[in-house]
Amino acid sequence: MNKSILSQDQPLKSLYWPDYNAEGAGSIRSGQLGCTGIAVSQLRGPMGFYDVAVVTFDDHRPPSIHPLHQCESIEI
Question: Please, which of 10, 63, 70, 75 could form a disulfide with 40 given CB 3.0 to 4.6 Å?
């Protein structure tokens, strides 16, 4: 799928992902626990592009990337 209802660089308020591979469920909210922002981006995959959330932090941690199709819910 090469089209998305989400816009590139659109800010998100929070992400929640379910318990995959017994690693435990997780969530992140913009403005909490050092998270300075969550923005929509895209990565190329084997069947086209897919939407991801890029989470940035206020310390020296590198940004984390979460595929949005694996998230249980997102808050816009």
Answer: 10
Q: What would the two tokens of residue 25 be?
A: 């469920």
* Neighbouring-strand partners of residue 40: 53
Question: Over the stretch 2-29, which tens digit does the pLDDT of each residue have?
Answer: 677 889 999 999 999 887 666 677 889 9
Kindly list the distances between the CA atom of residue 66 and the CA atoms of 11, 33, 76, in Å, as whole numbers in the listed order. Answer: 14, 17, 15
Tell me the C-alpha distance between 1 and 68, whole Å. Answer: 13
Q: What confidence tens digit (pLDDT) does each residue in 38-76 have?
A: 999 999 988 888 999 999 999 989 999 999 988 989 999
Provide φ and ψ at 17, rounded to 5°: -120, 145
At CA 75, angle to CA 36 and CA 30, rounded to 5? Answer: 10
